[in-house]
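Encode chain A's predicted structure.
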Amino acid sequence: MNEIKRYLAYNGSVRVIAIDATDMVQELRELHNLSNLATAALGRVAIVSAMIASTLKNNDDRLTIQIKGDGPLGMIVVCADKNLNIKGYISNPEVELPLNSEGKLDVSKGIGMGTLTVIKDIGLKEPYIGTCELLSGEIGDDFAYYFNVSEQTPSVVSVGVLIGKNGSVQKAGGYIIQPLPECEEKIIDKLEKINVKLPAITSLMSEGRTIDDIAINSTGDENIETVFKGEANLKCDCSLERIENTIIALGKEEALNIVDENGILELSCNFCNKKYSFNKEKVLEIFEKRKK
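Encoded structure for chain A:
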């Protein structure tokens, strides 16, 4: 179970989102055969994506997050929707690096410098696109910076993935705290002081803290109110129709050239690794079907 909740603290003046995504990140690891480093990097982005997706309002609303860094992990892409269906991939899933000076996975070096882009398709004529430079490559800091500069929403973002000695994901989760416009300055100061001293979220989870506990600990408000609860799921929505559209985009001549060279045209989904194969007859059929 990948439980996610939204809360209101301090009489509705502070929004909090928290998630336990341990199972989802473990599924991502197994699906893409991720290294420890790639698990931490892709897992952190998936966790934040799920939390942001929990704020989408309409059933058709969708979210895409892209991180393009110059580090060896390459690009990270995660998509999510209103129903908390999550899918994601990382360009170089097998990359591993030495631990950093603190003895932790060096996600920052793995991602490097580059850009973070958030695309929200929320039913407008054009999707909302917000982009900022990566601040550190540690993901949490980068999203806090994104919220501040692109959405003018000061935020605390904590996210973590703890991997055990056996390679399995022990704990994975995160939380976001966002003061709303009516929040008093003294409450904002209190939130900052609490979160500077608070241990990493995976440490809190390892101590047995629930996401309810973490929401209370990170705000200092014992009377926090739960306003939403749901479950994030790793789910890909790829389909034969979408793959056929990709072949159409290639063009008939290029598609047939690939079949002539390889005997078959095979495409796979980056998000779920499902393979789709087409012989010459099937390729011709796709283009004929589009003529009608």
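Residues 115 and 235 are 26 Å apart (CA to CA).
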